[in-house]
Amino acid sequence: MIIIVKRKRLISMFAVIAVALVVTVGAFTRSKVLDNEAANTSADGNWGLSFQTEGAAPIANASAEYLRQFDGYYAEETTDKVIYLTFDAGYENGYTSKILDVLKKHQVPAAFFLVGNYIESSPQIVERMVKEGHVVGNHTYTHPDMSAIATEEAFSEELCKLQDAYEELTGKKMKKYYRPPQGKYSEDNLAMAQDLGYKTIFWSLAYVDWYESDQPTKEEAFEKLVPRIHPGAIVLLHSTSKTNAEILDELLTKWEHMGYKFKSIEELGKRKN
To answer: Which of 35, 80, 238, 257 is catalytic?
Structure first.
């Protein structure tokens, strides 16, 4: 009987060890998979943010250090209360002039990332942007999923065609700032943009403002844009948004009262903290 009991205990002990080994190996494997996934997000995918602390920069799916290899930015690493204000403009629907009026009132420099049809359909507004000291950036000519473009020739065509249209209209060289449509990118894209002399500009604060028929309320906009502002923020708004045109004056005033100042994206990477 004693021998039988010991054997049972021994078998039970081995069973526990075996289960522990399986759990440990499984956890290790799972950890390696997550590590690989985390590594891959910096090289390929859709731009994404996770806000952890009010008033602090979010965690992005690519680090500032990683992006700097390719002259890319999503925020400035600083404790200074500075904001880089940017707008994406896929088309014109009557709100940009009001936005420009507000920017002029507050003496805020902004960057407008435009596509080809905007330059063709709204040349006077583009010229006003330039005249009033704003940066006109490259949002590609046709707004495709650039992460699906594998060849340097096709990638270059999207940027260079937009660049040529801008320079033909304004008679000025385009300042080389590029924003991937929909935030879709790949490591190859980042390298291709860099080879063309462009800085890739993502963002560290945005909200769902681009659905023309489903605009956020003022309250919904402020709920996202005020508590999430942070030092060094690159803010993305859409100039097609009726809400943005209506709230911009009050929004800029709120940020100013919080102690923020506005800088041009041309100062990214140049300022001394």
So the answer is: 238
Q: Tell me the pLDDT tens digit for each residue of 169-206.
A: 999 999 999 999 999 999 999 999 999 999 999 999 99
- Residues whose CB falls within 8 Å of the CB of residue 33, separated by 6 or more in sequence, listed in order: none
By the 10 Å C-beta count (0-12 exposed, 13-18 middle, 19+ buried), 221 is classed as: buried
Supply the pTM of this predicted model.
0.84
Give catalytic status of residue 88 as yes or no: yes
Q: Which of 44, 71, 88, 195 is catalytic?
A: 88
Tokens of 61: 């799916």
* 25-48 pLDDT per residue, tens: 333 333 333 233 333 344 468 899
Quickly list H helices, the chain: 2-41, 64-68, 96-106, 116-121, 123-131, 152-170, 187-195, 218-225, 242-257
